[in-house]
Amino acid sequence: MNFLDIKARSKDEAKFRTVKDMLGKGLISKVLDEYDLKGEVQNNRKLFDRVVIDITNGLYCFSLAMNGQIKRARVLDLGCGSNGENAEAELYPGEYYPWFARALHALDIKVVGIDVGSLQGERFEHYEKDLLTPGSLDFLGTGYFDVVYSSRLFSSPELEKRCSGIVRPGDADKNARERLRFVLLPQIERVLKKRGYFITSNPEWTLDFEVSDLID
Ligand SMILES: C[S@@+](CC[C@H](N)C(=O)[O-])C[C@H]1O[C@@H](n2cnc3c(N)ncnc32)[C@H](O)[C@@H]1O
User: Fold this and answer.
1) Which residues line ligand 1 (CB under 6 A)?
2) In contact, 215 and 26? CB cutoff 8 Å
3) 102-128 tens-digit pLDDT
4) For 126, which of 24, 74, 76, 99 is 20 to 30 Å away at the CA?
């Protein structure tokens, strides 16, 4: 298994162009249209920026890992975000919908999204599961995915709530992260192809370019 440490990545011009191209073809509008969210999101600058950053950052890392060959890739998005109740929805209403999985689906890329929160009505293949439960990925085939992606799962307030019973803004504490890592890492290794990538990302820490560089 390869890890993609987003913080260490460099600005790769070819991959950068691949993402710019996808965005140029109206990807963000397509995603918002599919979910009938265009008005709501575009009238909320903060939310719009969040959506664009999440999708852009995810695609960039994904493209880097796949060396630009993204069309036939299979992606598993863990803690993909939810459209229902969870600690995130309580603390940050509307910010943690499954934007990256929605974008991949809009690009006709095979994506499976898993979250403990509701995913009802999502158009990509999805499962509502608690990833702290041992064997939660047993239903997935061995060596099936090219990429396992998890954005902000390990720092999730919902994760903290499930481990300590406390809902608090900011990062889940070290114990919660360690507990999840212990249960999840061997399973991630099993479902990934031998040369597959585990990408963990956190857009606030990791953007090494301006989103405005990508949007005309
Ligand atoms: C901060 S949100 C990130 C959502 C999305 N990946 C993103 O980057 O915007 C973390 C997500 O992880 C989910 N999550 C937290 N603990 C989980 C667990 N034990 N099992 C499954 N999902 C979990 C939450 O429900 C939430 O949707």
Assistant:
1) 54, 79-82, 86, 88, 96, 115-117, 130-132, 151-153, 156, 158-159, 162
2) no
3) 989 988 999 999 999 999 999 999 999
4) 24
